[in-house]
Amino acid sequence: MAVSLLSSMPRMKVMPNHIHYNAAISACDRGGQWQMALSLLNVMLHVRVRRDEISFNAAMSACSKGGQWQLALSLLSIMRGKRLVPDGFSCSSAIGACEQEGKWDMALSLLRSMPEIQVIPTPITYNAAIAACNRGGQWQMVLGLLRRMVDTRLIPNKVSYTMAIAGCKTAGQWQLALSLLTAMPRMKVSPDAVSCNAAISTCSAARQWELSLSLLADMSHMRLVPDETSHGSAISCFGEVGSHWDVALLLL
Question: Cα–Cα distance between 114 and 1 in angstroms, integer?
Answer without folding.
Answer: 36
